[in-house]
Every structure is written in structure tokens, then in C-alpha cells.
Specification:
The complex is a heterodimer. By secondary structure, chain A is of the alpha/beta class. Chain A folds into four domains: 191 residues, Rossmann fold (3-Layer(aba) Sandwich); 39 residues, no CATH class; 191 residues, no CATH class; 238 residues, P-loop containing nucleotide triphosphate hydrolases (Rossmann fold). Chain A contains 33 helices and 18 strands. In chain A, the strands form three sheets. An eight-stranded mixed sheet of chain A has the order 3-4-2-5-10-1-11-18. Chain A starts with 11 loop residues before the first helix and ends with a strand. By secondary structure, chain B is of the alpha+beta class. Helices cover 48% and strands 12% of the residues of chain B. In chain B, the strands form three sheets. A seven-stranded antiparallel sheet of chain B has the order 4-3-2-1-7-6-5, covered by helices on one side. A two-stranded antiparallel sheet of chain B has the order 8-9. In chain B, helix 2 packs across helix 14. Chain B starts with 7 loop residues before the first strand and ends with a helix. In chain B, 17% of the residues are buried. The chains are: A alpha/beta, B alpha+beta. At the A-B interface, helix 3, helix 9, strand 6, helix 18 and strand 9 of A face helix 8 and helix 9 of B. Chain A: It is found in: Nucleus. Chain A: One of its GO terms (molecular function) is metal ion binding. Chain A: It catalyses: ATP + H2O = ADP + phosphate + H(+). Chain A: Its cofactor is [4Fe-4S] cluster.
Chain lengths: 714, 499
């Protein structure tokens, strides 16, 4: 198979990656592939799959590329553009591939009036009011109105969009259900995919939501009343449709046209909407009853935790709501909104939320839990009741994807330990590989700092985190490093509150002032706009040579989405092990579930989760082979084998016994040495043959043997 | 008294200088002091020559004002009028404070330029010592020629790099306890300037209040007392002078945030392709009430805010010009090019980085080194010559028609190898050994000095102005004579020593 690769050189691991990928596609199975960031995953994926599509057009018809953030998606599109140009140049033919990137209307809308709005919801609402089907019908008769191209194109060879478009049943139903079976689905940056799955299936209800839903119901009632007076036929027509039921949908699923919707399980399709909610008025009455019931549940004084069957039993006893109509709630509401020609969907989001909740709770008896908290843990005096309907099983949301598409590739820079993903997502991969980074020079330097100069162990564990000595040692570490590391340093804390406390005590101790002598300090805040500004200033400061420090939070937005290439991040410091807040009831429920269902011990999962976030954080600084950076793990717990062993292989193999449990002074010495070495000019010739291959080298037998060692099968 | 036509701005009587009573005059362009009863000035300094003024601390018995000159000398005036000594001194100080900066810039520039040239160029420095210090030619003449010559290559360095502000300037103001429950802050004009540049709001307050409502001292006292300086304090009362500043800062911060960011890669708000509506997801909904935050938490977040703001302001005070990403126009949207390129996978080198514009790169890499008189090669020279040699080597083409026969070549190599015919007792070696190095260097200095004089001499031709003519016939001849005499003296001294 001839693969066009739009660069003059190739990394050995890219070649190896493509081989594994091809093996997965050949076997028509799923794959889990881990390759370090900055070694060109995206372009390898794209060039191989596009070549595969060309070679076997009947085997693979479509590539669905899912990434996480908007910039990531834009990057993919850019790479694709480059690849296409290369194809055009090499083959001389204009390409026949149609690539399509989808994003929310906020990012893509070309309508001049709409795109000026800043908030996603407003845009959605406005767009819907312009493009809803009946308005589109009008537009055909009136061509002067601008047309949104979104609806005109859906048959592309390559689709690039965010995870949610495939995983979130609410959106997938609209966007993705018509995608062909013979597609390859790629989840890039997939290390958090389980959380995305869970998020898309979980619902939180507050008193405010209920109040607003109440208002929605009233509006619905009025609208129905009005329509009944004007156009009773319309409602009758809807009734007829509902009697016929969801037969059409059923036919479609059986003939394999649609991606199945996890919210809409198979049984529903066999049946018609039950009579009790078939007429509009009855349905509104039904919703009212449901709302009243939920309100009464929120009036509890103590925390309640129960399973879906318990909830259903209770609702039947209290207000006589059966399971069956509940299941049709979402479908019925959608139909009603369509019939009533309500354009401003945004206003009805609370009631939609309730209907989704009703459907989910009645559909799944396993994998979900309901927790009602009358107040927040920190403020037990202020009543703020929340009903969490929480999904604990990420495989529920992703199941249709694995079942429907012939190949699903899960890939990221940090997926270690690889075997846990198939377990929590409940699928069987045909390939699982981790690739290392071939390096002509060791451009990453992971160091584990376990002690201060005073030999006090440093750790962010709960018992010692407020310890004065620990905080001071953390401060000294940052201070010392700020003196020797050029340009940018990024430091991650385990949580926002912890960072706030540390910053305050560093300020009192004058450590921050001393750091300021070396570099400017920028700090992440909970406010996204403020943080964006701080980030931009941070980059500016790195740019003009002044150097800066960014204090940030693991699991925060910065740690997940922002790259610190080259001088933007010459050192990353991870203060502590970023464990998730373990006291949360939702998490506890999930851990229990994992233990019972998948035999994953609580501690294993927590450590896995903490280490993947730590790896994400430190991986932010290395974005390629020409890049270099220090990775400093400031917690003595990192030195333990169970923690260290969960780091990605490409980081792990550079941790020597000599870099465990260092003091601050030793760290500074090692860092100095490393930085001095790295600052030497680095040329292509140094890399060539080792970590960079030309076409000729690629064809030699010897190199191929070496490449075979790069991938580590699990 | 000396009747001068200059405008006298201030006269202070009873001022002692070197234990002599007299009167201090502040005039438009200079400061002068004359002893009592005499009508001439024994001390007179142009403002341009004064580097700075210092005053004795409050509460000291002697009330003094010291002027430090650029040359390093200083003059101290003691205000001896019993009743109004302090007032007199302050009047003089204030007037000087206004006058000095006006002259400072002009003088500084020239002086700095000269100083810099001397420091940069050890040969020139030696020449300066030989010619000016030994009074062969006057300093002005020496520079007249130089500066004009160098003006070309210094026009580039004249748009000099603006010095940024140290981020820790506030930390540099270390309060000292004075023993009786008080704090003393030492403020220098640099720090004040830093504060003003970083916090324009404070500057405005200063301009509004300082001479009219408050004295300078009071102003700064209040500044240090205010919550504004102490970043963790939360604004309390309105009577604070600086509460308005804080509000203004807040506003500035808001507007900065409001502007949004240009680089889409760091815009966290649009980072996520957010599909989850409100109410979905496991993440707890943010608590609606902020009132339940404790005071401590509030002050912590205030610190964080202040730090971000401070850093941003410091950065803004420095220069902002360059960007890493070259934004290329793709229709309506921008995408940073640098973000997706694998520079090492491609042939050509893509990005141009900002280079540090160092005037003295040697000092950057070696740290400060005392200027030495011996000849040395700058690293730039070495690099240049290496590049030159490399270049030559790269372009070297053997001219095969004109090669020697191999026997001749090998005999030549033998002859040139150590121990060969031509390598015995090389002339170079002889001179090195015969003449001691000090003699060599002295001779070299004399030679360069003579060369410089000759340059002066030849630069007078063609003689087309009366000034040049005068220079030629008058003192230039004299100078050459002096130089010759110097050389002669040196020669005889050497001869004497030898014999």
C-alpha cells in the first residue's frame, strides 16, 4: 500500500504507529495506541487512513476523527489540508475526498448576524430560529434569505469533530446517526474519554431547574391552548403519528442505517408511545406531576442515595407514574416541541433536561445512581438541594460506537496503563501498543523531588499538605528553579484551593517576592477569561525574554488544553499527586461500581486517574523532538513503583534510579547540567538516522528491525 | 558680588563649604558658591556636570546637601542658618530637583556614549590614556574627531533598548525598623519611576496631590500604609487615598479581560467545543452564592488577582513588539502557523526567533571583566575568521594545472616542518625572545598614539577652513613635537636601562 506522507522525513515511531494502525484496520477491530505528544500522531493517522481509503475504498468508506478542543480540531484540519495539497502535488489529480469539520454553531456559523453573538446558547437559539425545518421550507420560496450550509453537506469522506458529537446521545442523534458502518472512528487525546462518556449521560437537577421547568410547562400549556383554537388538526396529526409509533425508527435500525441511541433502547422502538401521554394536554399534565414529585424529593433534609429501581418504585407509589410513560418522555417532548413550532429551543432547555432524566432513569436499572444532597458539604447551613443523577459506567455511552463502527482507534500521548481502558470501556481491542520516543538526545528530564534541603519529606498528601515545612520547601524549589531555568516555567497544583492557600502563605513568607526577582508570576483563576489573559501575558513574557512562571491547576483547563512548546515551558513542576477529591459521593459511588462490576480496586483507579493527569500536566512541555524540558515531580510518593509504573512508557524510561527521591539542591544541580546540555545547538544531522529517517533509510533492513522494537505490545 | 548676567534663581545665605561661610547661588545653568565677602565663586558646577544630589537625613544635627559630579567628585554644602536651615536646604533641594533632570539627559547621553566607547574598545582606551591623559591633545579634540566618525555606526544603537522594570521592584523596598516601632522605606528615584510606570493610577494621584495637598514624604507614607501596597488587604474605607487606584486597577483588569485574547490557542473560553448544556455532566454546579466565601479565601483570591495584574502591568511597561506566531491570513480567521509544524520533519527552517540585541556580547557570556589594556580578540572576531576560513574552504577549487610535482611538494613540507630548513630559528621567535613583552606593548602604544596623531594631521587636508589651517600650523605641530619627544624619552630610557 502506498502511503503519501507530506514531509521529507519521518520519525521511526510514526512508521511503527502506521504499521500498528494498518494491522488494526486489516483486522477490522478496535485499537488502543499510545504515542508521545509531539511525535506527529495526527499526521500519521491521517495519512495512513486516507491511503487506506484510497487503496480499499470498499472496506473503509469514512474516517470520523474526534478530538477534544477547538484548537485541536483546527490543527487536524490544517494537517489534513497539508496532506491534501501534497496529494494533489504528487498524484497530479484534484482530490476526490471531501473533508468536513463540525463544531458548535458558535464557532462555525457564517451568518453575519448570528456569528456576532458570543455565547453558545444564544447562538444556538438564534440559529435554530433561522434554520428550523419549517423556516427552511419558507426560505426555498424566498431565496434572498441567507442559507446556512450546515444542512446541505453531510456526506463527506472525512469528518472531524468533537467527542460529544458521537458520544452524547442528544447530539449524536442529530449529527452522527447516519454515519456508515464501514467507518473508522478515531478518538484522539482520548485519555479522558471515560469522563466524557459519563458526563454525557449524567444529569444534575437543582431547584432552579425545576422552577424554570415549571415555567416551561406553563408556556407549553398556553401554546397548546392557543393552537387548539386555531389549528386543532395539527395536534391530531401528531397524535396519529404517535400511534404509529416509532416504527420508522425501528425499521431504520434494523436495516442498519442509524447509529443506535443509547437513550432510545431497542424495546422502545417496538412499542408505540403509551396512551397516557399521547395527547398534548395529557402529556403536560404528566410533566406537571413529575415536576411536583421531583420538588418534593428535593425537600429532603439529609443526603439520600438510591438506585434507579428504588426511585421508580417510589415515584410509582407516591404519584402513580409508571415506568413506561417515563421512558417515552424525551421522545414525546421533542415531538411536542416540533409540533408546536417552538423556535426558541434554548428557553426550553430545563424541561428538556427533565425529560432526558426521566427517560434515562427509567431505561437503565444498572450503572446509574441517584444522589440527593440538601446542601453543599462546605456550607451545611445554606440549603442548596441538588439531585445528581450520575452515570457510573462509561461503557453505556460508548457502547453503540463500538458496536456500530468496524474500527475504533483510541489514541493519546498518555494512555498508561493501557489495559485499564478496555476494561472500563468494556471492549476488546485487537491491538494495544505503546510507542516510545526515539531520541537523538535525551530531551526530557524527569526528576522526582522527595525531600527539601532540610530532609523534610515533601508531599501533598492530606496529613502534611498544610505543613509549614512542606509549603516552604515547595516554595524553595520553585524559587531555586526560577533562577536557573530560562524562559517559562509551568507549575501545577493538585487543586485550586490548595494553590490559593500555598500562594497566600508564599506571599506571607516573601517567597513570591523573591521569585519575582527572577521571573514574572501569573496565576490561573477560576475565571476562564481572566486565565486566558494571564496565559497570553505569560506567553508574551516568555517571548520577550523576561521569563515567567505560570501557576496552574491539574485537571484545570490549562492542564488539559494548552501546549507549552519550546520556551513557553522549559520546566514543568507538579506539586503533589493530583488525586481527585475523594470525599465526593458521586465518586464514591463510581468507585464502588467499578469494584463490583469490573473488579478494579478503588486505589488502583484513583492512582491511575491521578497519574494520567500528572502525565498530562508534565507532557504539556514536550511537544516535539526539538523541544526540551524538565519534568519535576515534587512529591515523594512518585518514587514508589506503583505510581511510577503508571506513567507513560516514554516518560518512565527516562527515570533512572538516580533521579528518585532527590533533595532540592540535587535537583537544581541535575537541572543545571541538563539545561546546559540542551541549550547546545541541535541540528537535523544529529537526528538523522536515529530519530529521523529519510525514505532511503526507511527502506533498509536494519532500520526496520530497529523500528520493530519501538512498539511495545501489551 | 559677582555681577553676572545670568539669571539667578535662588540665593541662600549662610551656607558653609569647607568650614567657610558663604552664599549659595542657583542660576539658570549652574550652581555656584562664593565665600563671604569675596566677589568671586570658588565653587561652580554646571548642572550638566552634576550626577545627583544627596541630602542629610532628617533629624541630623548638620543639615547638608551634597552634590555628586559625574567625575566622581563631590561638594558638600552645610546650611548653617540657625532658624531656617532646613527650609533653605529644602528650597535648594526642590529647585535642584526640578533643574537637574533637564540637564541630565543631555549630559548623560554624551558622557555615556564616550564612556561606552572607551569601555568597548581597549585600544581606544589606551589611546585616550596616551594622548589625553598625558595631555598631548585636549579631550574635546580627541572626541570631536571620534564622535563624528562613530556617529554612523551608533545611529543603530541610538534607538537603544529600553530597560524594562524588575518585577520585584516592590520587594526591593525593604522596610527597615528604626528601633522605635517605626518602619523606614528607602525609595530611590528608580523605584519611584518603576512604580509610576507600572501603576499609572498612582502617578496620576501623585500629580494631583503632591505639591498642593501633601508633601512628597506624606504621599509615600500613605502609599505604604494603604492596602494598595499590601496586596492581601481588602479595601476597607473610602478615606484611603488609594482606594480609587485600586478601583481603577480593577477596571483596567476587567477591560483587559474584556478585550479577550488574540491567540486562539490560549483562549480558554472557546477552547472547548462545549456540547453539554447546563445541568448535564457530573461536575457539581458552581455554587450560586459567593457570600459564603470566608474572608481568608477572599483575600487569597485578591492576592492572586493582584499578582496577575502586577505582572501584566510590569510587562506592559516593558516593550511589547514581537510575536512568536506569524498570523497568516486565511480568509476571515487566523491560525497560528507555528502550532502544527514539525520543523525537523521539513527541509527548510521555518521560524525566525527574536534575537537578543547585545552590544557587548562578550560581557554577556563572560560576565563583567576588568578592562585590560592588552590586545585581545573579541569572540566576534574569532567567529568571523572561522566563518571566513570555512567559507574559503567551501569555495576552494584546486587549480590542477598549476600544481607542483609531488617531490617538490614533499620537500617543501619537509622544509616547513619543525626541524626543517626553514623552521630553524624563525625570525618571529627571535623577536619574541629578544624583546621583553612590556617593551613590545609600550612600543605598540607609542605607535598607535603616533598613528592617531598622524590621522589628525592628515584629516586636516585639504585645508579649506581657517580652523583647520590654524590647527595645522598651530598646535598640531606642537603635538607631533610632543609625541616625538615622548618617543625619544622612551627610547633613551630604554637605552639607559639596557646599558
Amino acid at each position: 500500500m502506498l502511503v503519501y506522507f507530506p514531509y521529507d522525513y519521518i520519525y521511526p515511531e510514526q512508521y511503527s504507529y502506521m504499521q500498528e494502525l494498518k494491522r488494526t484496520l486489516d483486522a477490522k477491530g478496535h485499537g488502543v495506541l499510545e504515542m508521545p505528544s509531539g511525535t506527529g500522531k495526527t499526521i500519521s493517522l491521517l495519512s495512513l487512513i486516507v491511503a487506506y481509503q484510497r487503496a480499499y475504498p470498499l472496506e473503509v468508506t469514512k474516517l470520523i476523527y474526534c478530538s477534544r478542543t477547538v484548537p485541536e480540531i483546527e490543527k487536524v484540519v490544517e494537517e489534513l489540508r497539508k496532506l491534501m495539497e501534497f496529494y494533489a502535488k504528487e498524484t497530479g489529480e484534484t482530490n476526490k475526498l471531501l473533508a468536513l469539520a463540525l463544531s458548535s454553531r458558535k464557532n462555525l456559523c457564517v451568518h453575519p448576524e448570528v456569528s456576532s453573538l458570543r455565547f453558545g446558547k444564544e447562538v444556538d437559539g438564534k440559529c435554530h430560529s433561522l434554520t428550523a425545518s419549517y423556516i427552511r421550507a419558507q426560505r426555498h420560496s424566498n431565496p434572498s434569505q441567507p442559507i446556512c450550509h450546515f444542512f446541505e453537506i453531510l456526506h463527506a469522506n472525512i469528518v472531524v469533530y468533537s467527542y460529544h458529537y458521537l458520544l452524547d446521545p442528544k447530539i449524536a442523534d442529530l449529527v452522527s446517526k447516519e454515519l456508515a458502518k464501514k467507518s473508522v472512528v478515531v478518538f484522539d487525546e482520548a485519555h479522558n474519554i471515560d469522563n466524557v462518556c459519563i458526563d454525557s449521560m449524567s444529569v444534575n437537577l437543582t431547584r432552579r431547574t425545576l422552577d424554570r421547568s415549571q415555567a416551561n410547562v406553563e408556556t407549553l400549556q398556553n401554546t397548546i391552548q392557543r393552537i387548539k383554537e386555531i389549528d386543532a388538526a395539527k395536534l391530531k396529526e401528531e397524535y396519529r403519528r404517535l400511534v404509529e409509533g416509532l416504527k420508522e425508527a425501528n425499521v431504520a435500525r434494523e436495516t442498519d442505517i442509524y447509529l443506535s441511541n443509547p437513550v432510545l433502547p431497542d424495546e422502545i422502538l417496538q412499542e408505540a408511545v403509551p396512551g397516557s401521554i399521547r395527547t398534548a394536554e395529557h402529556f403536560v399534565g404528566f410533566m406537571k406531576r413529575l415536576l411536583e414529585y421531583l420538588k418534593s424529593r428535593l425537600r429532603v433534609q439529609h443526603v439520600v442515595q438510591e438506585s434507579s429501581p428504588q426511585f421508580l418504585k417510589d415515584i410509582y407509589e407516591k404519584v402513580c407514574i409508571d415506568r413506561k410513560p417515563l421512558r417515552f418522555c424525551a421522545e414525546r417532548l421533542r415531538s411536542l416541541l416540533r409540533t408546536l413550532e417552538i423556535t426558541d429551543i434554548a428557553d426550553f432547555s430545563p424541561i428538556t433536561l427533565i425529560s432526558h432524566f426521566a427517560t434515562l432513569v427509567s431505561t437503565y436499572s444498572k450503572g446509574f445512581t441517584i444522589i440527593i444532597e440538601p446542601f453543599e458539604d462546605k456550607t451545611p447551613t445554606i440549603a442548596n438541594p441538588v439531585l445528581h443523577f450520575s452515570c457510573m459506567d462509561p461503557s453505556i455511552a460508548i457502547k453503540p460506537v463500538f458496536e456500530r463502527f468496524q474500527s475504533v482507534i483510541i489514541t493519546s500521548g498518555t494512555l498508561s496503563p493501557l489495559d485499564i481502558y478496555p476494561r472500563i470501556l468494556d471492549f476488546r481491542p485487537v491491538t494495544m501498543s505503546s510507542f516510545t520516543m526515539t531520541l537523538a538526545r535525551t530531551c526530557l528530564c524527569p526528576l522526582i523531588v522527595g525531600r527539601g534541603n532540610d530532609q523534610v519529606a515533601i508531599s501533598s498528601k492530606f496529613e502534611t499538605r498544610e505543613d509549614f515545612a512542606v509549603i516552604r520547601n515547595y516554595g524553595n524549589l520553585l524559587l531555586e528553579l526560577s533562577g536557573i531555568v530560562p524562559d517559562g516555567i509551568v507549575a501545577f497544583f493538585t487543586s485550586y484551593i490548595y494553590m490559593e492557600n500555598i500562594v497566600a502563605s508564599w506571599y506571607e513568607q516573601g517567597i513570591l517576592e523573591n521569585i519575582q526577582r527572577n521571573k514574572l508570576i501569573f496565576i490561573e483563576t477560576p475565571d476562564a477569561a481572566e486565565t486566558s489573559m494571564a496565559l497570553e501575558k505569560y506567553q508574551e513574557a516568555c517571548e520577550n525574554g523576561r521569563g515567567a512562571i505560570l501557576l496552574s491547576v491539574a485537571r484545570g483547563k490549562v492542564s488539559e488544553g494548552i501546549d507549552f512548546v519550546h520556551h513557553y515551558g522549559r520546566a514543568v513542576i507538579m506539586f503533589g499527586v493530583p488525586y481527585v477529591y475523594t470525599q465526593s459521593r458521586i465518586l464514591k459511588a463510581r468507585l464502588e461500581y467499578l469494584r463490583d462490576q469490573f473488579q478494579i480496586r478503588e486505589n488502583d483507579f484513583l492512582t491511575f486517574d491521578a497519574m494520567r493527569h500528572a502525565a498530562q500536566c508534565v507532557g504539556r512541555a514536550i511537544r516535539g523532538k526539538t523541544d526540551y524540558g524538565l519534568m519535576i515531580f515534587a512529591d515523594k510518593r512518585y518514587a514508589r513503583a506503583d505510581k511510577r509504573g503508571k506513567l507513560p512508557r516514554w516518560i518512565q524510561e527516562h527515570i533512572s534510579d538516580g533521579s528518585l527521591n532527590l533533595t532540592i539542591d540535587e535537583t537544581v544541580q541535575l537541572s543545571k547540567h541538563f539545561l546546559r546540555q540542551m541549550a547546545q545547538p541541535f541540528r537535523r544531522e544529529d537526528q538523522l538516522g536515529l530519530s529521523l529517517l529519510t525514505l532511503d533509510q526507511l527502506q533498509s533492513e536494519e532500520t526496520l528491525q530497529r523500528i520493530a522494537q519501538i512498539a511495545q505490545q501489551v | 558680588m559677582a555681577a553676572s548676567s545670568e539669571e539667578v534663581l535662588l540665593v541662600v545665605k549662610k551656607v558653609r563649604q569647607k568650614k567657610q561661610d558663604g552664599t549659595l547661588y542657583l542660576m539658570a545653568e549652574r550652581i555656584a558658591w562664593g565665600p563671604e565677602g569675596k566677589d568671586r565663586f570658588t565653587v561652580s558646577h554646571l548642572y550638566a556636570d552634576i550626577r545627583c544630589q544627596k541630602i542629610s537625613p532628617d533629624g541630623k544635627a548638620k543639615i547638608q546637601l551634597q552634590l555628586v559630579l559625574h567625575t566622581g567628585e563631590s561638594t558638600t554644602f552645610h546650611f548653617a542658618n540657625e532658624n531656617s536651615a532646613l527650609r533653605d536646604r529644602d528650597a535648594a533641594k526642590d529647585l535642584l530637583q526640578q533643574l537637574l533632570p533637564k540637564f541630565k539627559k543631555k549630559a548623560n547621553k554624551e558622557l555615556e556614549e564616550k564612556n561606552r566607547m572607551l569601555q568597548e574598545d581597549p585600544v581606544l582606551f589606551q589611546l585616550y590614556k596616551d594622548l589625553v591623559v598625558s595631555q598631548v591633545i585636549s579631550a574635546e579634540e580627541f572626541w570631536a574627531n571620534r564622535l563624528s566618525m562613530n556617529s554612523v555606526n551608533h545611529s543603530t544603537s541610538n534607538n537603544k533598548q529600553e530597560v524594562g522594570i524588575s518585577a520585584a521592584f516592590l520587594a526591593d523596598i525593604r522596610p527597615q525598623t528604626d528601633g522605635c516601632n517605626g518602619l523606614r522605606y528607602n525609595l530611590t528615584s528608580d523605584i519611584i519611576e518603576s512604580i509610576f510606570r507600572t501603576y499609572p493610577a498612582v502617578k496620576q494621584k501623585y500629580a494631583e496631590n503632591v505639591p498642593h495637598n501633601l508633601t512628597e514624604k506624606e504621599f509615600w507614607t500613605r502609599f505604604f500604609q494603604s492596602h494598595y501596597f499590601h496586596r492581601d488587604r481588602i479595601s476597607t474605607g473610602l478615606q484611603d487615598l488609594f482606594s480609587e487606584c485600586a478601583k481603577q486597577d480593577e477596571k483596567g483588569l476587567k477591560s483587559m479581560v474584556g478585550q479577550g485574547v488574540k491567540n486562539p490557542l490560549v483562549d480558554l473560553q472557546s477552547l472547548e467545543d462545549k456540547a453539554l448544556d447546563e445541568g448535564y455532566g457530573t461536575a457539581a454546579t458552581p455554587s450560586t452564592s459567593n457570600s459564603n466565601r470566608t474572608v481568608k479565601e477572599n483575600s487569597n483570591s485578591a492576592i492572586i488577582k493582584r499578582f496577575n495584574h502586577h505582572s501584566a502591568m510590569v510587562l506592559a511597561a516593558g516593550l511589547r513588539k514581537h510575536g512568536w506566531f506569524s498570523f497568516h491570513d486565511l480568509g476571515d480567521w487566523y491560525f497560528p502557523v507555528g502550532a502544527i509544524e514539525y520543523e525537523d520533519l521539513q527541509q527548510e527552517d521555518g521560524l525566525k526567533t527574536v534575537s537578543l540585541n547585545l552590544k557587548k556580547s562578550d560581557r554577556y557570556s563572560h560576565g563583567p571583566v576588568p578592562i585590560q589594556t592588552q590586545h585581545y580578540t573579541t569572540s566576534q572576531d574569532i567567529i568571523n575568521s572561522v566563518i571566513l576560513v570555512q567559507h574559503e574552504m567551501a569555495n576552494y577549487k584546486p587549480c590542477l594545472t598549476q600544481v607542483m610535482s609531488s617531490t617538490m611538494a614533499s620537500s617543501a613540507i619537509v622544509a616547513l616542518s619543525p626541524g626543517g630548513v626553514l623552521m630553524q630559528a624563525g625570525t618571529q621567535q627571535a623577536i619574541n625572545q629578544m624583546v621583553p613583552s612590556e617593551v613590545q606593548s609600550e612600543l605598540k602604544h607609542l605607535y598607535t598614539a603616533a598613528g592617531e596623531l598622524l590621522r589628525h594631521f592628515w584629516s586636516c587636508f585639504p585645508v579649506n577652513t581657517p580652523f583647520l589651517e590654524e590647527k595645522l600650523t598651530g598646535h598640531l605641530e606642537e603635538m607631533l613635537q610632543t609625541a616625538y619627544n615622548k618617543f625619544h624619552a622612551w627610547q633613551t630610557r630604554r637605552m639607559m636601562r639596557k646599558t
